[in-house]
Amino acid sequence: MSHVTKCMCEECHYNENFNCHADGIEVKSSGDNKIETSDGTCCNTFKPKG
Fold it and tell me: β-pairing, 27-29 with 41-43?
């Protein structure tokens, strides 16, 4: 399994100094259209801080 080394979502519980510390992540498409770039994806593992 690949290790996520960069996370730019400062509001995520798993983000520590821009490194993802989740045991694993799930990435999915963010819409119903055909995905052609990373802009059409989202991290489904996101958990808000707090």
Answer: antiparallel
